[in-house]
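Quick one - first record:
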Amino acid sequence: MSETSPELPSPVLYQVTGAVATITFNRPDRMNALDTATKEALLSALRTAGADEGVRAVVLTGTGRAFCVGQDLREHAENLLTGGDVSTTVREHYNPIALAIAGMPKPVIAALNGVAAGAGAAFAFACDLRIAADTAAFNLAFAGVALSADSGGSWSLPHLVGRARALELLLLPETIPVAKAAELGLVTEIVPAAELSERVAALAAKLAAGPTVCYASLKESVGFAATHTLAETLEFEDSMQARCGQTADHLEAVQAFLAKRPPEFIGK
């Protein structure tokens, strides 16, 4: 009689409630470190959320004590010491994940339940909003393992805190308590840990009920402006405004204004 091994829990959970997709790192025993299976599952979940027109807001969070502590160094060490190829994961995993988060055509909230380090911190920075429990913290741990930044950290961090402070945090990595992180501009809001889920759920529901095409256009405009001239940005804003002006949500907003009632957006 053959025995079957118990099925391992998924390293990433995906749940849709209403119009909100929640993507949860699910390796609490490893502080949600990113092994290959986790990176592949995360990218798949992000792409599923992005392609689902019924999803109008996304929450990224973790289980246990950590949000995500970045690369699983045990897997990395095993590959490195046995002659495996460790040079492809940035290109194959981290880059697509960072682009999927930042380029998500709907708002993305990082619900920071605990420490976010390395690539985990960079993923949080790629989100649009970061709601942190009072037990959360950050660490830009790349230099501590003699590696450069990845997952867009060298792009998103300076946009949040400025070039000089970004270099300081990267060259001298240390744990950044959540209060200091808020002072630096790394988090949007701090809430008691016991209230994190409730606060994020309320915020996600609010965004999911909003004008989704407008949100996507705002995200694209800010991203475009970061690397283009004023004249180029004005042209891009014109195209985004034209796109939004043709949506059912814009018409609804105008009609609601005239009728002196709250608008009811459908995300189109």
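second record:
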Amino acid sequence: MKSVLTLVAPPDRYRLSDAVVAVVAQHLHEDGAVLGEPVWLAEDAACDIPFDHLPTERAYQLAAATLAELPVDYHAQLSEGRRKKLLLSDMDSTILANETLDDLAEQAGIKDEIAAITARTMAGELDFAQALTERVAMLAQLPESALATAFDRLTYSPGAATLVTTMRANGAYTALVSGGFRYFTSKVAAKLNFDIDLANDLEIAEGRLTGRLAGPILDANTKLDTLTRLSAEKNISPAEAVTVGDGANDIPMLREAGLGVAYQGKPIVRKAISCQINHTDLTTLLYFQGYRISDFTNENAAEAAARAGDDEQMTTGG
């Protein structure tokens, strides 16, 4: 079959049943699709519905109408080229549950003030570079030790390590590209086995943040340029890449990639990007690429470290 519609549910909250799959398939058929047999990628959680003779956009619309009241994520696409060779991921509120700049602001006693600016920036209401410069300036004189404290409090998004290690195990190149800070991306990339990381550098002098950035600002255009550059270096097309993020500065790279996914996206991102993860975790990016759960690389040091960090926070109430 030339096309496929993938349905993914959170198995801890909702069981994706044969009946639900059958209803979606029936609606595709009634609209003219020729159907193949459903393929279960994970029992009760993820299923492919192969089809022909129906545009993927129409299949998406039918899925959206059918599943509107259910906690199910879905995506329709061509079957050819489905598995990607390059992963570009945002960090804050994507690979991490945290907004690291807001976490630093908490130690400076100004979290609410900076978080409000962060929210407006990610919603596309403020210029990214200007807002970042303003927020970093507000952190002037914060001790360098605050960076380590913030890192120790990070929470990894469910499925993050499995996404990265599974794609790497299958030959994909992985990049963590953030408008945040390299202090965090370098450590997160090392823990989760990303191939490279790119982010902004904080200027530090005499053990304290100066309130300035060192070097040019990494913004939406830089993220898009990174997709273009890495695709060229790997001798592939951006169509062979998957990108994922949540904020307005991610939209250009999400639009350009063959599979651009809004993960728990802000409203402006959900409006711009049809492929969304709103109910499930980051392993859904693997299901959308046709991976079965048996293909996942689950047992690795990165996942264990991420789980251990989460468990410790739950134990300490952090």
